[in-house]
What does this fold into?
Amino acid sequence: MAVFLLALSAACFLGLGFVLQQHAAQRAPRADLLHWRLLLDLLRMPEWLLGTGFMVIGLILSALALNQGEVSLVEPLLATNLIFAMALARVLTRQTLGRSGWAGVVLLALGVTVFIVAGRPTGGGPPASELRHWLVIGTVVGLTLLLVSFARRLPLFEEATLLALAAGLLYGLQDALTRTTTQRLDHQGLDAVLRSWQPYAVVVAGVVGLLLVQSAFEAAPLRMSLPALTAAQPISGIACAVGFLGDRLRVTPGALAWEVIGLIAIVIGVVVIGRHPALPGSTGGSGGSGGSPEPVGPADRPPGASTEGAPDPGSSAGPGTGGTTGTTGTTGTTGTD
It folds into this structure.
């Protein structure tokens, strides 16, 4: 019971923190996207600091939950953070849940319940070999790098989704390594923890994941990023837990079928909630978005911004625009003749 309470409390604080962070990150300069100076700019925003405080509390509670329960049990419970995020966003936007909102909530809750009941996650399996350990970690890190690389070539709205997916993969790995660290702390003491690489990997994964998710929050509305983040994290965490932590799930045909159904229900519920109008649907901050939901292409990023993807000069250029051959210059020349 303590694991359930800790995990759901962590989900509550994480969900509230994500909404406040995105509300602040959307006002950051667009030039900061995927740059470390984004975090420095966000540190000057009280709303983002409050959201980060909630997030830190959520991470502490999730670490306590992971210390007492298996990753494959805690991760699905953490996915409910989207419900708490929508609850706060509903207050901010004054939107009612409606049928779609309740459908998403029910699907997510049922998916978590079905997966836990069918899988009956337990620990105590044999430790994985070093090769398997690093293969799982390398796969997660490799997928993260591929997603980030591919995201840079997409319009900002699509980029936000892929960056959130990458952050979710890292957060799932971070949860698995947190479980390893807390177990070592309990059994071998602080000195053994400080001499191992896992706690430092937890910090690196957390900081890189934070940069990715804040860039996703800056690039597009919350509904484009938070569902992807929420769906990717439990899948990555469960894969790592089974891959190298020794977590066990029931593998009978019936149990596997229900586990898959539960995961699918979680993902669908996350997507349905993410599309609900209660989640902020426009960025309305600085960076030229002006609240428009229109996607921005890669060429519109400040470092490489040029004429590609920009409005037609003939329709937007006014008198005094130098160095262009817009309609103003043409008509002026014709008039002198």
Observations:
- DSSP finds 14 helices and no strands in the chain.
- Residues 43 and 331 are 50 Å apart (CA to CA).
- The radius of gyration is 23 Å.
- Residues 282-300, 302-337 have pLDDT under 50 and may be disordered.
